[in-house]
Amino acid sequence: MLTPRTSTPTSTTGTDSLVYLLFAALGVGIGAGSLAWFFGNLANDLIGFQRPWAPYEPTTALLHSRDLWPGLPETALVIACYVLPALITLASALLAIWIWFRLRGNPKGLAGQRELTSLLPKEGATKSISLRTSLKGSRPKDVAPDDRGVLLGTLQPGRREIRSSWEDVLLAIMAPRSGKTSGLAIPAILRAPGPVLLTSNKAANDAFTTTFDARARVGTVWALDPQQIAHADRNTWWDILADARDLAGARRLAGHFVTASVDESSAGDFWSTAAANTLTALFLAAANDGRPITDVLSWLASPADRTPIDLLHDAGLEAVAAQLHGTVAGAVETRDGIFETARQYASCLLDPDIAAWVTPPQDPSAVREFRPEAFVTSIDTVFLLSKDGGGSASAIIAAAADAVMRAAVIQAERDGGRLDPPLLAILDEAANVCRLKDLPDLYSHLGSRGVIPITILQSYRQGQRVWGETGMDALWSASTIKLIGSGIDDADFADKLSRLVGDHDVRTVSVSTSESGKSTSVSMRQERILPADAIRALPKGSALLLATGIRPALLDLKPWYREPGASVLAASSEEATAGITKRAVAKVLHQHDIDKAA
């Protein structure tokens, strides 16, 4: 009994590759023969054998060149018909292979130069002229690259620079050691045309040491370093209560101390809310009477002290005074719980070395006062440094960053709507040392005021821990430029990104054999442009760009150490890092001497 033969699908990959290889070999042969024919005739003319060009016979020119040009010297014949064609063919093949690999490395469906026109130099220059009053009347070709916007990287494939505009707000989610500092923060600081703010929890071999000297040549460099990350002498102070003279400012300041101490999930409970209200009242009382913030610690230690209530009455803040009085006069257990919670939130101020950075100095001539309203109209730089974890001064850092950005918005309104040159606010380690509770809300309008924030997070979940799921979604949605670096190990987030990048059509060829012969069918199927595993495996130094209104694209970051002048920056960084180490050792030895003397 005969068994019916069923059709068997057959892969055509090997056959197709062989066909492509044969066509490639044929193309190389024809190209080399054509070059041999061209250079042979050209050599024949140049050397002086004036006769009509030999007929087009590429095979003969390559294999039997002496038959076409019998009078050419041997050396000239070899160079014209073999050396030159071989070199040109080899160069062309290498160029074709390079282009093929570049195109192969860029999955179909991602944006190319045509889609990213608005982020390329020509349109970027035109847009910067419309956004910045100082560039009015300039021709696009005369606008310097760094005046066009923040450098994001270069497009894959190709090497075209991609820059965001001066109205884009940026969010970068990059794992540690993925190039977020060297490839994004440092280049942005070095190229900024206006004032720069940087928050960080590191100093040595980081953005602080790499950019300090370069920015010092542009303008004044300020540093708030309450926990002595850079171990520098305290030559700067900032009046933390300057914006707390009204209820809104005092409430914002209290919110920074609360947000720095608790996660979003517990920020709205009774004790946190009551402690925030108490801190608001005490900050308001101290600010309106011109007292330092350290007086607030004294009032927190003695809940029965009526001084802040009296000061609020004197300032005409009757409602706030009544609320504070109600807390103080309430049940002792409740009052003590509220004040103890408030004391925990403000505990970093118990360290006199930290408090000295935000209280008036005894000798004002020896210490400069940092004034945010003056800073935003300069081309200066301010580094805001703090450790993360328990007892950190991150509340002070967040308050300072908030004061600078709000001062910039106020100045922009005075200037007609936009700050020019724009303020670049790089919030590195934003979830650890600069927890601005209302950052998602600020993102919706900062860009339109010429205040350009770059919030850098290590993961999406890190942002959710600070701002909650709703807040992080709002921050994500409000960011007009999103950069996703390598090392995304969150499977849910990687899958979300993969869905956002989208699908593309893939052509599938199937060949079946049966008793009646072969049949070929072609079908189309949908496939992810970048699967989740491909997003997780993005190489270091590259980033996925998600820009509003533009298809996703892949970029190569441009780390500072690969740019011209990197050796000078590296030397400055090494010198500054050595200085930090030297000062740290000197402090340890000094403390050791004090302990021995005691």
TrEMBL record:
Domain TraD/TraG TraM recognition site: start-end pairs: 422-540
Localization per record: Cell membrane
Bilayer disposition of the protein: Multi-pass membrane protein
Annotated InterPro entries: P-loop_NTPase, T4SS-coupling_protein, TraG-D_C
Main location: membrane
Membrane-spanning segments: 20-39, 76-101
Domain of life: Bacteria
Name of one Pfam family that matches: TraG-D_C
Keywords: Cell membrane, Membrane, Transmembrane, Transmembrane helix
CDD domains (alphabetical): TrwB_TraG_TraD_VirD4
Name of this chain's protein: TraD/TraG TraM recognition site domain-containing protein
Source organism: Streptomyces polychromogenes
